[in-house]
Amino acid sequence: MSIFDLGERFLEFLTKVDIGDFQLIEGSPDVDKYDIAIVEGTPITKENKKRLKEVRKKSKILVAIGACACLGGVQEIKDYRGDKKQLIRQIYPNIRGIDNPNIKAVKEIVKVDLEIPGCPINKEEFFRLINQVLEGKIPEIPQNPVCVECPRRNKNCLILLGKPCLGPISLAGCGAPCPASGFLCDGCRGSRKGINLEAMKNALKMKARLSEEEIKNLLERFGKLNELYANKN
Amino acid sequence: MNFMRIRIDHIAKIEGHASFTADIVRGDIKAAKIKIEEGARLFEGIMRDRKDVEIAELGSRICGVCPVVHTFAGFKALEDAYGIKVEEPALSLRKLMMMGQIINSHSLHLFFFSLSDLFGFKSDLELINAYPEKTHDALKIRDIGNRLVEVIGGRAIHPLTPCLGGIRQAPDLEKLKKISDDCKNILPLAIKLGELFINLKYPDFSRKTTFVSLTNFDEYAVYDGKININVGYSTSHIEPKEFLLRIKEFQAKDKVAKRTHFEDESYMVGALARLNHNRDRLNLEAGKLLEKSGLKFPCYNPFYNILAQAIEIIHCLEESIKILERIITQPIKVGEISIAERTDRGVGAIEAPRGTLFYDIKVKNGITESVNIITPTAQNLANLEDDLEEFEQLGGFKDLNAEQKADKIKMLIRAYDPCVTCSVH
Do A81 and B49 touch (CB under 8 A)? Predict the structure, then answer.
């Protein structure tokens, strides 16, 4: 949806590229090769996974966009709960034929050349980066914390006010809209490299008075908890 | 040929992934089935044992096209459970966001999903090339819808300012004033778009349908109301809680999206249902356009859901102008409230663009015990399949070849504006 909401710029973008498969606006049959494949969402069904592998084979460059594709997304919470088998039975009387795998990000299934994270993605960032890809580059998102962008739109640091916020460990690039609206940064873009996870947990415990359970719930919201541990100094 | 199987894989120009199969036996369509191809994300499961407000925050993530309605249905369910009344101006701010949601969702569906069908184009790319000015108009209309959500909600997708009891932070008054002006400038474009849709030819198909929507005696119900359901010739107004007790949610084997029946009957929700019930409460220009269309009620032709959406866009722009004029005259004061008692059951019902959305919840000490989410599209699936079973009655259907039949079927599915990812969640 964010891409669509580039509005006039999206229309202009359409004049620069040949669309192979964008089911939202056209139903043409699939093509043999893609220069760029843009993938959103988490592959859950067997069909999803099969199609993802096919698309990877046919594509020179594969770009994963959004928290679901990059991290796993909120649906990954079911894996951290550890009771997905009970959950599915509680929701569906007939579970046969409903895939209930452990949630994987796109890069855990195929090679990904560029990730544009966020829930939702920042359409300005998307537009900027995808145009660089069209020019033949593979851009890198600077590994800054959200804190770098936050003061531009928000006068008061949430943590200093004793409120929870994952800004220090989260990847900047969104423009920090959440603290600007009085909402915490909940890490929807995933963590940046070189984080001090223990310090973050301490700040949440000591300053924001969160319990262990609340800290766990916050960190696991968008998935890929193990990356948090891998991104440490 | 006595027997033909129709199979449409990957129906394009709908939200989400679905396909369709049916048999055509001696001209009659049988066993019409919509197959939902989305994976199950188990939202109703992951919300459990987490903080109550995450019902709304996570619920928003069910859909990128209609996140506002999920957010509000979630908060409304909690407010119902805790006995909280949302006061002004927060209530007006929420209603403005709902107007924005309907405007942005309908304009997307009308122009980019359904119009190609009505013109006979295979792809939107053809439509955009053939009608560049109308495309720009449609984008302007979608954009004002997005801005209403963004300026008040903090973000167009997955809004940030809705909170338990109201809206957390006041929007920038200058930005609101600009939006108010822009709504007035865009209203004529919406009326022009509406006139385009009046003058199109809609397929001639009709099946007696039960309609369900919210109804409210003060206004064209979107944010609040009782459930209005007409079965046969009688109309009832019942509380959402009671409605939920009387519907049956069922899941066929191998089906990842449930369906619902009211007293063993399928029913339809959405713009056409709302017009059937509440058209006498439309705003002025919307009402005038409906009059001009000559549409007779009750209207049982699902293709007119498209025209109904065009009329609702006009209504919502007029409503936004009305609300904005009232609230921009003074500084807007809102804030979070604190609630101590957080244990009870509650239901939140709201009119999403595609129809009535329900969140049925149970919370204890601020932690969610259970959630049942019934989305408009899940409710419409049974009705859509019932329509498809009778679809051979569409004027001229029998004389079409297989590909043309498939095209008409896709058109019907698109007219419902299904939001497939919502139907699964």
Answer: yes
* Cα(A130)–Cα(A118) distance, integer angstroms: 15
Nearest alpha-carbon partner for B313 in B275, B257, B341: B275
B158-211 confidence digits (pLDDT tens): 999 999 999 999 999 999 999 999 999 999 999 999 999 999 999 999 999 999
Tokens of B245: 């007790």
Report the alpha-carbon distance of residue A170 to residue A144 in Å, rounded. 8
Do B256 and A1 make contact, defined as CB atoms within 8 angstroms?
Answer: no
Chain B interface mutation, best of A25, A96, A155, highest count of B Cβ atoms under 10 Å: A25
Q: Could you tell me if B14 and B6 are in contact, meaning their C-beta atoms sit under 8 angstroms apart?
A: no
Using CA atoms, how far residue A17 sits from A27, A28, B12, B129, B342, in Å, is 17, 15, 20, 15, 53
The pair phi, psi for residue B172, each rounded to 5°, is: -65, 120
Amino acid letter for position B74: G
Beta strands in B244-343 (DSSP E): 247-250, 259-262
The answer to whether A226 faces chain B, any CB pair under 8 Å, is no
pTM given for the model: 0.95
B161–A182 CB contact, under 8 Å: yes
Q: Are A38 and A63 in contact (CB under 8 A)?
A: yes
> Could you report how far apart the first and last alpha carbons of chain A are, in Å?
35
Residue in B142, B154, B152, B158 with CA at minimum distance from that of residue B178: B152
In residues, how long is chain A? 233
* pLDDT one-digit tens code per residue, B55-87: 999 999 999 999 999 999 999 999 999 999 999
pLDDT digits 0-9 by tens, B244-286: 999 999 887 768 889 999 989 999 999 999 999 999 999 999 9
What Å distances lie between residue A126 and A4, A14, A123, A142, CA to CA? Answer: 11, 15, 5, 14
Q: Which amino acid is at B336?
A: E
Question: CA angle, corner B99, sides to B181 and B356, nearest 5?
Answer: 170
CA distance B309 to B376: 15
In this prediction the ipTM stands at 0.93
Contact B28, B318 (CB under 8 A): no
**Nearest CB to A180 within list B10, B12, B154:** B154
Contact B42 A24 (CB under 8 A): no
Q: Chain A contact for B105, CB < 8 A? A: no
Q: Tokens 């309605």 belong to which residue?
A: B69
Q: For residue B135, which amino acid is it?
A: T
CA B42, CA B46: separation in Å to the nearest integer?
Answer: 6
Which of the residue ranges B120-129, B299-308, B356-365 would you say has the lowest mean pLDDT? Answer: B120-129
